[in-house]
Amino acid sequence: MSLQAQYNITEKTMAGYSPLDQLAPTYLVEVIKKGSVVVFEAGDVLFEKGHELGFHYYLLAGKITVKKGLFSSTTIDSKRKESLHPINNLIPSDSTVKAQTAGHLFLVDPKLLDRALAWSESNPKGDQSGSNKQSKTTTPSQVQGEFDEEYFNWMTSLLEFPLFLNLPPANITELFDQFERVEVEKGQTIIQEEDEGDYFYLLINGSAKVVVGDQNAKLATLRPGAYFGEEALVSDIVRSASVIMEEDGCLARLDKESFQKLLHNPLVKYVSKAEYQKTVAAAEEKIALLDIRSLSEFEYIPMPDCLHIPLSDLRSSLAKLDKSTAYYLTEDGGQRSDIAAHILSQNQFKVFVLRN
């Protein structure tokens, strides 16, 4: 029996926690499945001073003490309202955290949660196909609205590529409609030198070699996570090298038109906090800081002087916004801020996403 099952960590019990409560049921199931449980006893030291927090930590059972110095300590109780949120902001790195009672924590990967939140907002009904027609990567079960774990893992593997870090999540559905998954064999030529560029490729697994002229003169080896073929698509030149598989593997490929639309011409503009502060200081245009997190997230960690519209309400609130104002979306919303930026830009608003 898994620890999730042993401690009754299910989609039903976790649906009350923020921002997990924003996930479509199918995504919530997978986020829980990929989470982990940490069980502790009274007196255990959970976090030493100087700790780093690599996950979202939910205190599901027990009480813990957060100590900062000799005379400063607070108690976090799993039965109190603040524990319905990740406790990360309650356990700063300059504190030591010790268990008062036995209990357990549930750890969630923040990157996976961020993506799942973005996918949920892009497909609020939990339909991973994004349309009524089958795409190149869609299975029959998706068309019927059922969850397909292989497809979910396929999407996750693609979004592990750094290339996609700034991709507007609102384009995710269209991206996966256009990407084609291709199983390849050792010795197969993927790109032939001097051919016209037709596809952009991602190497999901396996390895390949890059050669020019004589196939015995290998220039480089491509490993999972590598992408190639974009230069010929961007500049309309012929292929400058050949790519040949060195072992069996799997590729994802995207046709030229889709590459230009979805990857080469991003819809969302990003600015740093420093650039934003310069804009504020210049006072040359009307600007507004916009937070699109859920109400519970905003109330739990509010942002002063910030307009708050939950992403789920943004489309119905567009008429209330001023098109002469430049909207800057907070980075706290993660990829959901990217979705909001896409919605606003599609409706002719000037919008930027704060992103360090």
Automatic annotation (TrEMBL):
CDD domains tied to this protein: CAP_ED
Pfam annotation, one family: cNMP_binding
Domain Rhodanese: 283-354
Recorded superkingdom: Bacteria
Gene Ontology cellular-component terms listed: cAMP-dependent protein kinase complex; cytosol
Residues in Cyclic nucleotide-binding domain copies: 163-263
GO terms of molecular function: cAMP binding; cAMP-dependent protein kinase inhibitor activity; protein kinase A catalytic subunit binding
InterPro entries for this protein: cAMP-dep_PK_reg_su-like (IPR050503), cNMP-bd_dom (IPR000595), cNMP-bd_dom_sf (IPR018490), Rhodanese-like_dom (IPR001763), Rhodanese-like_dom_sf (IPR036873), RmlC-like_jellyroll (IPR014710)
Region listing for Disordered, in residue ranges: 121-143
Matches recorded under SUPFAM superfamilies: cAMP-binding domain-like, Rhodanese/Cell cycle control phosphatase
Protein name: Cyclic nucleotide-binding domain-containing protein
Native source species: Alkalimarinus sediminis
